[in-house]
Design goal:
Helix content is 80%, strand content 0%. Helix 3 packs antiparallel against helix 4. It is an all-alpha fold. The protein has 7 helices and no strands. It starts with a helix and ends in a 6-residue tail after the last helix.
Length: 129
């Protein structure tokens, strides 16, 4: 269910970009700043331990991040849906236990993450984060 909700949200953002003159004129830099502002509001809510507001700000930050991806697509950075798929693949690769059912300790998981990341870097995959 949530899988389709991310796609539905991307669709809604694309519709917003099509129908809203204000959204349509946003540049990558402007939307990037909107996203950073939401992240700052997240930080403030967490600092105040205001979890109700924190939850709302998480949603706002998700909207602004996905909108940033759609604007990046419009400006030739890459397709938003490909960005979503690429992070899914990266996490699946670095956390194989999510699909193979093997349970790991926190230490084993962290070690595995760094080993796979180092291997990717050596192979030049570009997944350096």
């Amino acid at each position: 269910m949530v899988k389709t909700k991310i796609i539905e949200l991307l669709d809604l953002i694309e519709k917003d970009m099509e129908l809203s003159p204000w959204s349509r004129k946003l540049t990558l830099k402007e939307q990037h700043q909107w996203f950073l502002d939401e992240v700052e509001e997240l930080k403030e809510a967490l600092g105040k331990e205001d979890m109700k507001n924190y939850g709302e700000e998480l949603g706002d930050a998700l909207w602004d991040l996905l909108k940033l991806m759609v604007i990046a697509e419009k400006e030739g950075v890459g397709k938003a849906r490909d960005m979503v798929e690429n992070i899914r693949k990266k996490i699946s690769t670095r956390k194989p236990h999510l699909t193979n059912g093997k349970e790991l300790t926190a230490e084993e998981e962290e070690k595995q993450w760094h080993e796979i990341k180092a291997k990717e870097k050596n192979e030049g995959s570009g997944n350096n984060r």
